[in-house]
Give the backbone structure.
Amino acid sequence: MTIKTAMLMAAGMGTRMRPLTDNCPKPLIEVAGRTLIDRTLDNLITAGVEKAVINVHYLADMVEAHFAKRTDIEVVFSDERDELLETGGGVVKALPLLGNDPVLVCNTDAFWLNDDGQTINSLVSAFDPDKMDSLLLLARRENSMGYHGLGDFDLAEDMQLIRRGDKPEAQYVFSGIYAFNPTTISHLKIEKFSANVYWNESAAKNRLFGHVMTPFWMHVGDPQAVEDASALIEQRTA
């Protein structure tokens, strides 16, 4: 299995990141001197990804202008200026740009220090489209920064995902990246909805799985997290 195309979710309003996002889209917020979206792209490129589909809505012109300077990967934009379609609808709109082969879908507010593509390559190697619709990369709660919830998932013995539901906590949190077969959502309409809609469909068919990452994971969702992640990176790379 190889995956050469990734979709980066860059359209959101970044409300929890205010005031940093009053005049700057969230993906272009810098952490230790490098933008969030460039950190995500660095990991993808190192893992062999050659094409990035980036959805845009809030301050879209700034995001597009930023990528006029980057030439080490093909970049195309999925324009959501007219309507922000959320994490599921945005992917459905981008389907003509993604093609029919498996892709990676990535949030741009979470990352780990570049590990020469090992984590993404491990995810890609574990993805089996014959039995999986989506394979979500998971982080252990105790091996992360910037996440303050109770966990998203546990794992069955065969690595199928088990939602936390009514349990007081779960062991793993969704890291923001998943391997995915676009053909499995071709029946869905272009409208506002969360990726949870098609993940729930897949779970009902026993086709939603998880893969646990090894590196320390950083979720950067608010100004304090920007400061914390920047300090940790500077400490670790000093």
